[in-house]
Amino acid sequence: QVQLVESGGGLVQAGDSLRLSCAASGRTFSMYTMGWFRQAPGKEREFVASIRWSVGSTSYVDPAKGRFTISRDSAKNTVYLQMNSLKPEDTAVYYCAAAETAGIYKYWGQGTQVTVSS
User: Fold this and answer.
1) CA triplet 96, 43, 38: central angle to 5 degrees?
2) Dist CA 48 CA 57 (whole Å)
3) CB 95 within 8 A of CB 6
4) CA angle 57-58-60, nearest 5°?
5) Three-class secondary structure of residue 44 per DSSP
6) What residues does 4 pair with on adjacent strands?
7) What is the mean pLDDT of the chain?
8) Distances in Å between the alpha carbon of 88 and those of 16, 40, 67, 102?
9) At 103, is the pLDDT very low, low, confident or very high (cuts 50, 70, 90)?
10) Where residue 30 falls among pLDDT bands split at 50, 70, 90?
11) How far are the Cα atoms of 57, 64, 92 from residue 71, in angstroms, in the given order?
């Protein structure tokens, strides 16, 4: 089992920045990829960004490219999502997830709310 705890959400204005953190514990040695997803009210949960734990390679959804940066601190078993130039459409609950095999996110955090006002 892997336990994930997100933090760093909040209420900000358009154009501001936020950094989300996700601390992993448990069977962290089994993590293949960690990712960030988000779910806006009335919408399905969508992929935002991911990072291969061992090599650090990253992937982003198009709206996040150039504004969001995913990174990890292996020593702390923590993954971050730096979000810059936030827009009202970024408002959502952001979830951290961990996959032991490619593309299959087995473990999920409880989510952290990000609200961007215009």
Assistant:
1) 15
2) 14
3) yes
4) 165
5) coil
6) 24
7) 95
8) 11, 11, 14, 31
9) confident
10) confident
11) 9, 14, 20
CA-nearest of 74, 70, 79, 69 to 107 is: 79
Token pair of 22, please? 């996700």
Question: Which tens digit of pLDDT belongs to each residue from 45-64?
Answer: 999 999 999 999 999 999 99
Go through 78-91 and write b for each residue having 16 or more CB atoms within 10 A of its CB, e for each that does not: bbbbebeebeeebb
The amino acid sitting at 34 is M
Tokens of 113: 């709310």
Q: Which DSSP category does 87 fall into?
A: -
Nearest alpha carbon to residue 52 among 68, 76, 71, 37: 71
For residue 18, CA distances in Å to 13, 37, 52 come to 10, 15, 22
Virtual CA dihedral for 56, 61, 63, 64, nearest 10 degrees?
-20
pLDDT for 61-83, tens place per residue? 999 999 999 999 999 999 999 99
